[in-house]
Structure formats: structure tokens, C-alpha cells
């Protein structure tokens, strides 16, 4: 079958790769000049989230699929993408510590919560905290490298178009197969991130968008060898810098960085670090979100040749591998999508 994928961020890359591996022809269209969440995301895989220290949704299924799939993509692209990194997070007071210890006593959390984590060089670089908790099975995915390396490969193969997709150019009414750019396709998969709210076929779904801003900073000290969460996330990068973030706002006039949020992040960072730092870059992007915080997968109810794969939100690095596997099974074999992620839940 011939597929057209609109949007080559994390979602478009992973479902496209799965389709190609299954023997299908895939064409990609995207506008790299439009800032995408994939280009700014830290790619954190964090199994324990929130102030109540709960396991992320379906994390027991997501983790093994993510680790195996990103390792496969490393071989395909000849790039390191998956980094197993311990995660240490601050417990601010005795209440936090008691909640952490109580949650750790649940057998379902075995291996996920660590009472006395190894801190590495955290005490040498940061202000002391009441206590620390460790998160097992945490990691970082280099999403930016993944997307850019995949794009470069598809461009060299003539399967990638640098263009902002114009919905009016998708010739569809009265045709058995959608047509775009003088070529017909069996199905079109929209992986547009937050801009899917403007899609004429899927715009009525409850699309949200959360703007996040991050800093890239450098210190004169050797970088940490683990993820650290204390008011903000500090994520060490291969080049010795840190990804620091992120702010969160669901009301925004545009997707550009703002002076106010830069100041906010710098102030939070000064509350954490005891060493000087220099800001190397300040970035912003909008994450696609959904009202019930679950991805959106499935075919248009009246136009089955049109598919959506969207709404990965803040957990995209861990969600995307399994979600793309589910979507492939649905497209190839007619497998029913879980009700939690199917767009049928909104219709």
C-alpha cells in the first residue's frame, strides 16, 4: 500500500518506519521551519509521575516496547538514541518522604521506587534537599537526533517533501484514493501535533496544546551522569550541556520563546545549582495534548482513508513506540484499537 504521512515528528517517524518495515511505500511531507515539539523535547522516560508518585499509564507495557524499538532504530540510523539514565528527584518535606516510602511498599511498584538512590555528583552541584527518591527504569531518548537522521535518510531516498501541507491540495471528494502532489495514496496519516486543531477532517476532536519553554545551559563543572528533578528537570546532554525545563502554559499567542519564561527558568535554576551557569539557548514549542491525557488514534468515521495519530503530550518518548505498534496492527490487520486511545471515544 501507499501511505502519505503529514508531519514527520516523533509520531510520523515511528509509524512511517513501522509501515516501511512491513513492506509499504511511505511518503512524508513536513515543514521543518515550523517549530515542532519533537525538536525541543528532552525525551525523558519517567515511569513515576506527579506529586502522588504514581506509575505512568501502562508503563509496564510501554517500557519494554520502547527500549526494544529505539534500539532497533539505533541500528537502522546508526545513531545512539536510547540512554539508560538513573533519575533522582527531590522530596521536599517529611510528607513527601512518607508518601514515597508508602508507595514503595506496594508490590506493583517494585523496581520503580528506590528509597536511597545513588546521588553521584548531585550534592557537589546543587543545594541540599530534605531527602531524595530514585526512579528505576528511567531513560532519555534523543528525539531530535532520531527525527533529523530519519528525515535526512528519507530526503536522500526521494520520499520526503519540505512543504507546509495545504489541505486544499489533498484531492479527495469523489475519488477512491486520496491524491496529493499528482500521486494517489491508499491512506493519509496525519501526525501534525498541536496544529491538528486546524485539520478540516479531525479538527473537531478535543485537541489541546501546552506551550513549554526550555533552556540549554552549560556550567564549568563536569556534567551529571543522571537525570535530576528539583523544581525543574536537569537533563544532561552528550555535548556537556543541560536541558532545563520546562514551563507549561495552555494559553499562548504564538510558539516563540518569551523573556518572562526565560527569567522564570533562570530563577528556578539558581535555586537548584550552587555553581555558575551560562544560557546557551532558549527554545519553545507547543506539545499536542488531549482533554483526557490519552493519545488519539484511528480513522475518520466517514472517510476511512484518512487516519490520525496524535496527542502524545509530555509522555511522547515512552508512548510513541507502543502506540505506533497498535496503529500498525489496526491498519494492516484490522485489529481493534484500545478504547482508551481510539478516537471513537469522542464520537
From TrEMBL:
Domain FAD dependent oxidoreductase residues, every copy: 2-327
Pfam families named in the record: DAO (PF01266)
GO CC term, one of those recorded: cytoplasm
Coiled-coil stretches noted in the UniProt entry, renumbered to this chain: none
SUPFAM superfamilies, A to Z: Nucleotide-binding domain (SSF51971)
Classification via InterPro entries: FAD-dep_OxRdtase, FAD/NAD-bd_sf
Name this protein carries in UniProt: FAD-dependent oxidoreductase
Organism: Neolewinella litorea
